[in-house]
Amino acid sequence: PVHDTEGHELSADGSYYVLPASPGHGGGLTMAPRVLPCPLLVAQETDERRKGFPVRFTPWGGAAAPEDRTIRVSTDVRIRFNAATICVQSTEWHVGDEPLTGARRVVTGPLIGPSPSGRENAFRVEKYGGGYKLVSCRDSCQDLGV
User: Is this model's pTM higher than 0.70 or not?
Assistant: First the structure.
């Protein structure tokens, strides 16, 4: 299982702040506008004193038995911010391509033009050093840098 900073197992019923494992690397995760106010990008606070918004992890698809609410390492999960926005849309994360550059970004809101894999909202929590990192598993699992 994935553990929080107090050693408790993460549960799909809980809300958690995603913070850097070591000081001096910015704050928690938040939502930020890009060119238009909506949809919102998943971004990191630059000020390490800001925790950002809490997130909720839930097992992705049929990856686990419905009664198993424990979030496990290297298992597909969906992630959403446990917060309201002015966008009046879902805060669930998914990987989207920037229209002009083609760069991949993690955004919130409705999924437009799903890929053949249909895994734009599949993420994993992986062990990394003394903590964890988030990876996107849209086509193949790629480090998000968090």
Answer: yes
